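User: Here's a chain of 89 residues. Predict its fold as tokens.
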Amino acid sequence: MSRLLAWLLILIGLAIAGVGLALVLGEIGSMYQHVLDDALATPPVDEQDRSRRILLRLGLAALGLPPLILGTVLSHRARIRRRHARRRV
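Assistant: Prediction complete.
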């Protein structure tokens, strides 16, 4: 049961962090695409607004780290317990 919970937490953490990082990379990509299209034009989005959105999306990615770390720790603990149980038998 703890292995299932560990893998579930790992997958949820990876999904949240992956979505957050994909959104950040999309925002950075759109910024560079605008620069490549017309370097001298004023950007359609204010730079302060863009940096705030990037930080918010990084915060979303960071929300995935605690379940990922907790799931990893639970997985390792379950593996260690299983090894010790085999040695006792």
